[in-house]
Amino acid sequence: MRKNWFWILLLIIQYLLVKIFQKHPQWIEEHYANGWYVTCSSFFRKTYGFFPFSVGDILYLVVGAALLINLVIILRDQREGGSWRMRLTRLFYFLLRALAVFFLLFNLFWGYNNYRVPLYEKLELSQNYSDAELTEFTYAMLAKVTQLQLEITGDTTTAVVIDYDIPRIYNEANTGYAQVQQRYTWISHTDFALKSSLWSTVLSYMGFSGYINPFTNEAQVNDKIPKLGMYVTASHEIAHQIGYASESEANFLGYLNATLQHDKKYQYAGYIYALRYCLTTMERNEIGELETLQNHINPAVYHNLMENKVFWDSYKNISNSFFKVFYSNFLKINNQQEGIKSYNRYVDLLINYHKKHAL
Asked: pTM, whole model, 2 decimals?
């Protein structure tokens, strides 16, 4: 029991630290995000970036198998008469220890980035927007997307295709952050470790286009997704790797990386990614102007917008909803109070950013 109390105490200490750090984002920014995290994340990327495959994916498989084996052993344990009460007690304390270790390593290696200074403060942006501002901005974004589509293809019926191979997309997403750093010197990234997930098909069924492994600091991309979205997705995961834990902030930095590039196909990928979020937000807010706006979308842009929906619909299943609910609650635990809806705060960043920097 003394050992068990140690793990309970460890969880309590971690909970109290989180409550303290929530109130001191500047301290996290200075001493964790730009201190400890820079050192440990660089070490992990240098170590695991050397491997051409995802070490983190294999780590999850090994740890998952070990947990499952231990669960079976505990439930089949015949000690002390094989009482179910004793088995469940041992199972409870085993899961308690596993949870304590998970959150200790998770927070130490990456998780405290959830409590750093918000990006909107660094960019000196206001928050929130009106329905009228959303509508006006969406029209402007559609005009930008349409302009680029015509420049790339020459007509309104030919959809934009990114025909680059995946290693090239990953490499250019990595090097592309130099353009972002020129504008914002406090965004820096070295020792890249961006890889295709070994479990890309599984991620597709779960409804995820990528993820950051907090234990190896490898940025994982689902290489099954349409290539039109791959550059922004890769850039999104790199943003997590840099230390921006918020999903909306990672979305914004992914958008910024794409739209600042010289390659118009990447620009288009960034803008249509943003347009899709704007249209979804208008639909969710039940803005009547949406139907009129949709009538202005040319066939090629419409095809590119639907390409993403068709892909995800092909993998939609009951487990998709389960994992979305699970991940949404995980985000809420980690200071993203809106859960999976926090992705939509990206539109907030977009609108207020472009009040200062015109499209």
From this structure: 0.89
